[in-house]
Amino acid sequence: MIWNETKECMSRDELEYLQGKRLVKVVDRVYHNVKFYRKKMQELGVEPGDINGIEDLHKLPYTTKNDLRDTYPFGLFAAPQSEIVRIHASSGTTGKATVVGYTRRDLEIWSECVARALAQAGVTRDDIIQVAYGYGLFTGGLGAHGGAEKLGAMVVPMSTGNTKKLTTMMKDFGVTAIACTPSYLLHIAEVLEESGDIPNIKLKAAICGAEPWTDNMRKQIEERLHINAFDIYGLSEVMGPGVACDCQYHKGLHVYEDHFLPEIIDPDTFKPMKRGETGELVFTTLTKEGLPLLRYRTKDLTSISYDKCECGRTLARISRFKGRSDDMLIIRGVNVFPSQIEAALLEMGGVTPHYMMIVDRKNNLDTLEIQVEVEERFFSDEIKDLESLTKKIAHVIQNAIGLAAKIKLVAPKTLERSMGKAVHVIDKRKLV
Ligand code: DLL
Questions:
Q1: Ligand 1, CB within 6 Å, residue ranges
Q2: pTM of the model
Q3: Residue 243 CB-half CA count within 13 A
């Protein structure tokens, strides 16, 4: 089903004309409302009048997650606070969150984009959909929820955390679609298999994203649950889920280009990559009012194709993600930077900044163990002091990253020292 044919099947000329018009408007908006952008553009000697269409995009400055951190919390907002109706936030690289704001119109466009993605997955107003992304500051829950409501489906706002209740409701309500992370869906499949309930569910589609996964994992999910699974992509800075999603042909994720203008650049030289080559995905938002971003560097590595898809959509497609150009990890759907752990440890006494994060996956759920080196004096101290230190570190780290981790204290100088760039992560998760 094509949710908005006029926008999803435009000719490239029509689309680029629309993108150009919208780009001119967004540049004008940020230049006049956001000090950060005015300054950056002035430094580059660019004025709004120099931007007349997408061919001028290369004249504009890049934006990074650090820019959001440096202007924390609302410094990049381009609308007065009275027009902002919603805030979301995700992890910053160190202590501070990255805060994003939406006007009422932003929320409407967001819901429209997610509705398009759900329609691509075959979801209609006759479906019952469980939204099992986290609700709250994370964009997954409320983002998927808004799109499902816009589509007119019946929404069950599960959030995360209670798999037994989720599977019971899935059976009892006759749930036909689910939106959650792919690893969580594999866990749900396992629970349903163990209870012998696969024949008792009516699920037909899943809209999975928020973390890397492979085509093999998609096929495994499809076979085990007898459903079709779709890949939805997004990031809070740019909007949330619904920036791109794949269709029934699974040959890349259609980017909603009338709202998000993609580029692929070399992450080291910042030069544009040739068509089809893998590089860092960059987005300029074309219609956002609350937090419009110029050339936002996602750090996600992918390639882009402009060929028309068999489904009839003309929207460009990005390939499944090949990793990131930074050290961000996604653990149980939560973005974690090793630097957050380091900052938290440095703020407390009794430990050294030497730590190792060991990430694994058990029963399709991510686990995180953090080994922390303790100062010498603690090792000669009472066991109970070590226990209380362990608890304290667990608490401090949970506060810093929003995830519970198993803490293991290790003796001074036991963690391997690196001659070059310090290694702080062992990721044992194998993407099947
Ligand atoms: O994860 C938004 C989202 C929610 C997308 C629900 C899809 C479904 P953030 O927390 O800001 O936002 O994390 C964004 O997650 O830069 C990617 O590295 C990764 N990511 C998101 N979707 C996918 C995907 C949400 N389909 C970061 N495949 C992004 C691979 C993904 N990585």
A1: 90, 133, 139-140, 209-212, 231-236, 240-241, 298, 300, 321, 324, 330, 335
A2: 0.92
A3: 25
